[in-house]
């Protein structure tokens, strides 16, 4: 299944010295903290170290810190967690990190061995050993392998966790890097796709000139073994104004190549597709929010995020549409289109997999999961629901493109993940994660809050059974609300151990801008309507207080990336509603976000601050500018990662610096090794967890109940 690429190094303050408010965008004259946008300047890193020392001295002095860290580390390092795998012809592959292997092992086993309680693993690549041998902080970022054997791979390695990688050819049969093999040793975004053993398509940042404003590639070259990448001929070029562009091969599950496809992501959510026909690139006549989904049973499938009117019929948003593959190859735009699936009310699809014989698609029905199997039989598409437990979050964990083998995950807030396996029949439970916390006396409820414009917003609360509705329960609320990403019930693991077991409640809000109820749920809260996402989150917080679940001094909020922006808008717009706010790896200065890290790629979600009308939308909520004198904000905890080249630490740094300038209490911590998800090994991840939960206990549990 191929989709266009998704999803912040910064602009240094020295090169901006003379810049004023160009196009309405604040420069140094309006913003004294632009120097913090230089990720690794000595001045910025000295500031970071001082902040880290202050925060660590405070948090680590709390008697609860060590226990929380140890509890988190025990869960993260546990040997009895499910080792999730991917299917390859030579076995089941797993990437594993633990106490002895903090950077991780790529390893494989057989299906027979995997079905036992203690599989025998063969180590393919030891990332810790490689990092030690080369004196690098290597982080394994996956591989791209040549089908159908999948034993010749380009391994992606990142320096310290940033998104940019180097790529090296690796042979999984010999378990060694290939001598004089393909190597792309310039750190870059983008990737490769194998054409055959001696040829690949390469979409990388070949130079500053050949990367977009969003710092992604927009050209693709065809590279032959033995040739220099500089001499590799270009086969497709998008525009510098694109988010990203490139070309790839359309293969079926037998690894047969049927076409070359190219794409131009003209915005984050809008993509133009092209197919190579008679040596030319022919644009596919499909909506900008419609994309090829894969090849199934001799058909190419499309997925659309908008209503698609074509040939006198309308395919509704979120549906799947099929075209006979041979017809499509002969006439890509004229071939007849047929509906495979369309969503009912409150339904949406999320993720799919194509096995040797079928298409499996994950679905959400009022935020409850199921999986549906599709096959083309006797001239028609037939579907059936896969027999998996109800009232849970269900996902597709792995699938084989050659056989009927597929694995599913089933989970909810209180019950650990179970892994199911099927080889064409009814799925059987194969493995289950152990319980990480005592769920006795805890219950889950689903409620609705009413947002500012009257829209009903669903949320889940996990709380002690029979909890007194007197507003005294410390409650942690989280959400996301962006990029059509759904936030779903999933086992609470460390949150259960570190927060619920200690008497707290947990709330997950399903906000507009996310993907819980389909593309429309997302599209109604982007750009000029982004404030709806913030309104939804605030409405859930207010509902929790109104119903007596909690009160402002005991209500904390937490979110990362777009969710960090969400938390920033919430505590600046309603400082009276919250007692604490964890702002993780956030977007925060939305008037300069397009200049920081990969920010320009998200203009499709938020708008462009350089355009006065759009700047006005953003100025209405940008948290950095909303931190002003004379307001009593809850004490926030902002954290980021130095190596995050996606949202970039500048956002969190500048937020903390502004709070400091105004004499507002705050905490700041920067993980100086991890990437966009923070923490590259379990020790660091456990420390980050402990810092956050100590903070929440101090803010929400230690505050007493006297107003």
UniProtKB/TrEMBL annotation:
Residues 10-19 have a biased composition (Basic and acidic residues). Transmembrane segments: none annotated. Keywords: Hydrolase, Protease, Serine protease. Residues 30-423 form the Peptidase S9A N-terminal domain. The keyword Protease applies. GO terms for molecular function: oligopeptidase activity; serine-type endopeptidase activity. InterPro entries: AB_hydrolase_fold, Pept_S9A_N, Peptidase_S9_cat, Peptidase_S9A, Prolyl_oligopep/macrocyclase. SUPFAM superfamilies: alpha/beta-Hydrolases (SSF53474), Peptidase/esterase 'gauge' domain (SSF50993). The keyword Electron transport does not apply. Residues 499-700 form the Peptidase S9 prolyl oligopeptidase catalytic domain. One of its GO terms (biological process) is proteolysis. This is Prolyl oligopeptidase family serine peptidase.
